[in-house]
Amino acid sequence: GMGALNVETGETLWLTKKIGYNSGVGVFDDSNVYAMNYVRKDKENEVYENLITIIDKENGEIKSQNKISGSTPRMDGWTLYNDTLYWGGRDHFVHAYNTQDDADSYKVWGSEDVTADIMGDIVPYNGRLYFVAEVYPYIDDPKPSRLISMLPDGSDVKELEIPADFMGVSANCTQFYKGKLYLNGSYFICVDPETMQVEWKLEDPEKKGLAGYHGFAIDNDRIYAGVGGGSEDAFVCIDANNGKVIWREKIDTDFYGSILYPPQVYEGYIYQPLQSCLLVLNAKNGKYVGRDERIRTGTLAVGLTKVYKDLLIVPAPIKGKMYAVKMDMHTR
What pLDDT, on a 0 to 100 scale, did the predictor assign at position 169? Predict the structure, then answer.
């Protein structure tokens, strides 16, 4: 199903049920919410039908539900741009669907000869679409991933090879800031989107781990992210201009739980949802400010955080909850 609620009061505004299993995160424009769903037509033979459901944003009424031939997306990696939905399918292609007609979906990027998963977000910028096509580095045949830039119709494709060990890109790991493109998988990369050249790559000589698979925040020329994958889990602050680490603070994930959500920065403080609490750090130095143990994301609940006015919105689908937290913990 799909629903809407008032983030200031928690009141459910509408709830649309029985539209099929959701695949991917819903996107919306001024009038509609678009959901991709699938229904099981033949349970024994695992035959599915893929659908695009268009829902009235104001009242939750289903306007249309259109069958498509395109593969369903992963939990992230789709966007709405110029009335067209774009998503990375499980079949290794980028698909598109025009929301203004009832035509079938169509492929705009990919090849039967390439087994590259489109992981993370498809991000529009200056009339082009950018995304990472990730080829998993098999031991006997490591292949590089690629940053792809193309026009919305799939033409004028430009590619940047990324080393095979750059992997794990997910939602909120592909962001533009002041004309530069920042990527985070196994480590951080800054790219000039016009030339498709790497501006800097953050090295990790101490092998402590710089994998920030669950996204990052950029504020005031600083990148903030929870990282791991090495000898310790930590929170880092990175200079967005040159990739230098400004500070790094170790996080006791045995106590707090894993980092499964991207952070948000508000008035000089970092708000980081963890499995067991909401952790607050000082953005200047990474020092501990406080925590709110009412906010628990649970396990296997990889998701997104949003900011509305001074409220931090944290969905916790595994726990069946949605949190709205006033970002004033530093004043308590």
Answer: 66
What's 104's DSSP letter? Answer: P
Q: Using 50 as the pLDDT threshold, list the residues of the chain that sit under it.
A: none
Length reported for the chain: 332
Please state, in angstroms and rounded to a whole number, the distance separating the CA atoms of residues 185 and 278.
23
pLDDT tens, 260-307? 788 999 999 999 888 888 899 999 999 999 988 888 776 655 567 889
**Continuous segment of H or E residues that includes residue 176:** strand 174-177
192-226: b (≥16 Cβ within 10 Å) or e: ebeebeeebbbebeeebbbbbbbbbbbbeebbbbb
Cα separation, 3 vs 37, whole angstroms: 14
Dist CA 66 CA 216 (whole Å): 35
Structure tokens at 158: 């430009």
Query: Tokens in use for 236?
Result: 């880092």
CA–CA gap between residue 283 and residue 269 (Å, rounded): 5
| Alpha helix positions (H), 107-186 | none
pTM: 0.89
CA distances to 115, 191, 249, 329 from 237, rounded to whole Å, are: 34, 18, 9, 20
What is the predicted pLDDT for the residue at 273? 86
**pLDDT attached to residue 75:** 55
Angstrom distances, CA of residue 147 to CA of 131, 184, 198: 6, 12, 11
Amino acid 181 reads: L
Backbone angles phi, psi at 248, to 5 degrees: -145, 125
Side-chain-facing half-sphere of 191: CA atoms under 13 Å: 25
Dig out the tokens for 142 from the structure: 């490591």
Q: What is the pLDDT of residue 243?
A: 93
